[in-house]
Specification:
The radius of gyration is 14 Å and the shape is globular. It is built from six helices and five strands. It has one domain. With 112 residues, it is an alpha+beta fold. It starts with 5 loop residues before the first strand and ends in a 17-residue tail after the last helix.
């Protein structure tokens, strides 16, 4: 996540519902997928650029550690779909009980 993804000021994470000091912008349809043919066929151009979720850093990092951009584009392009993913739901339940500022380290494991 680069500095352009940060949102100034605090707010409520759309996944864990915690009030935190800083939120990030999560493109529900990843920017790297905006120009592919399927994306152009399935989504309105303005919707692609405006479909953004406000997530705390731990939730945002967990989403990207759990799902690749193709999965995010095709199956998990709404907050509701993300929240329904079993691994993300388990993490959201856990982090929701932690204070703002809790640091989490993620490692993405590649399937053999």
């Amino acid at each position: 996540m680069n500095d352009g993804s940060r949102i100034r000021g605090g707010g409520t994470c759309e996944l864990c519902q915690r009030h935190v000091r800083g939120l990030t912008r999560h493109h529900l349809i990843p920017q790297t997928r905006h120009s592919n043919r399927r994306n152009k066929r399935d989504f309105d151009r303005s919707d692609v650029k405006q479909r953004i979720a406000r997530l705390c850093r731990p939730c945002h990092a967990h989403v990207h550690a759990t799902l690749d951009n193709k999965q995010l584009e095709r199956e998990f392009n709404t907050v509701e779909a993300l929240a329904a993913h079993p691994e993300i739901a388990r993490f959201v339940e856990w982090i929701g009980q932690r204070p703002d500022g809790t640091r989490v380290v993620f490692r993405r494991w590649n399937a053999p």
